[in-house]
Recover the amino acids of this structure.
């Protein structure tokens, strides 16, 4: 995933972010990638003490995008070690 989900690929998956600044952070200990899309949600969560349902909705929207998955990944038994 870290090689596939680049800033450029995110721009394709989220056309609304095409002209916005996108920052990508890898979190290898969590097997995760974090993106910050500057300005997409307006003032964002920092402007309020309320939970940010817009960001959660955006995450679900991104998760619903269809992408091609290499067959080699479908035939792999992947486990995460707890050590």
């Amino acid at each position: 995933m870290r090689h596939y989900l680049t800033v450029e690929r995110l721009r394709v998956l989220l056309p609304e972010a095409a002209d916005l600044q996108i920052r990508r952070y890898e979190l290898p200990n969590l097997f995760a990638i974090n993106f910050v899309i500057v300005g997409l949600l307006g003032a964002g969560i920092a402007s309020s003490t309320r939970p940010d349902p817009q960001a959660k909705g955006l995450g679900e929207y991104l998760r619903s995008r269809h992408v091609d998955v290499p067959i080699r990944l479908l035939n792999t038994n992947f486990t995460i070690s707890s050590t």
The longest helix spans residues 53-63.
